[in-house]
Amino acid sequence: MSEFLFYMIIFLANIIQGITGFAGTILAMPFSVPIVGYEVAKPVLNVLGILAGIYVVAGNYRQINFAQLKKICIYMGIGILAGIGVKHLAAGHENLLYGMLGIFVLLIGGKGLLECVTRRKKKKEYTRGAGALLLFAGIVHGMFVCGGPLVVGYLSGCTKDREEFRRTISAVWIILNSMILVSDLLAGYYTADTIRIQAVAVLFLFGGMFVGSVLYKRMSQQVFMVLTYLLLCISGLSLIVRK
Q: In principle, which of 5, 40, 108, 169 could form an S-S bond with 36, CB 3.0–4.6 Å?
């Protein structure tokens, strides 16, 4: 039953991923950790992030903003290495990590929901402190594979339309999650059971991405962004109050 719930979380989270180009992992991770554990959720969701990125980018890689892709990957790549180091130092203190993730997710969800409800306009481009922002996003991504919302705040002001944004951010996950994959392999996260769960999870990933791609063409993205941030708030709270 726990595995089935994990697969359904992956399916529903990746409907949002198919619409927005992000949020699949950060929605799935807080709900998945209590069900299957960090050492299963992180490697499985990380690989699914790579495959989700390929799914979006394969449609038209020419719409990728390669200048921004290079900048993001350099800064976040450094941050990811730091985040992996922090995760290893915190081994044995999983409840502390869950609490940190819950607070982070809750803050991101609350901020995003406020922007959606008040319809505040984002700045045209994030230039001040962009390097520090991306470094921190990399640290969070290295620890939890959840750095997406921070990158969204930066990249949304640096791309000309939502197609360029969607494909560029998907290309980011292909590159950066591949770094985390190497770390997970070296850490021994991939047992026979994890590989089995990974193989089944891929089917639910592509099912969700397909539904999301269809909805992306037919429905308002605003509605789904509000839903995404609401779910983030709920999932963040669930991690903070978990025993």
A: 40
* pLDDT, tens only, 5-32: 999 999 999 888 877 766 788 788 888 9
Interatomic CA distance for residues 14 and 211, integer angstroms = 9
| pLDDT tens digits, 40-76 | 999 999 999 999 889 889 877 888 999 999 999 999 9
Backbone angles phi, psi at 176, to 5 degrees: -75, -40
CA distance 144 to 30: 10
What mean pLDDT, rounded, does the chain reach? 84
Structural domain total, the chain: 1
Contact 239, 101 (CB under 8 A): yes
- How many angstroms separate the Cα of 29 from the Cα of each of 68, 70, 154, 162, 171? 26, 26, 22, 25, 20
Whole-number Å distance between alpha carbons of 206 and 14: 8
Structure tokens at 78: 């450094």
User: CA 185, CA 59: separation in Å to the nearest integer?
Assistant: 29
Residues 78, 83, 84, 85, Cα dihedral to 10°: 90
- Cβ–Cβ < 8 Å for 117, 55: no
Is the pTM above the cut of 0.85?
Answer: no
Q: Both tokens of residue 130?
A: 């962009």
CA gap 151, 189 in Å, rounded: 26
Domain that holds residue 159: 2-241
Q: How open is the CA angle 33-34-38, to the nearest 5 degrees? A: 30
Task: Look at residue 122 and tell me whether its pLDDT is greater than 60.
Answer: no
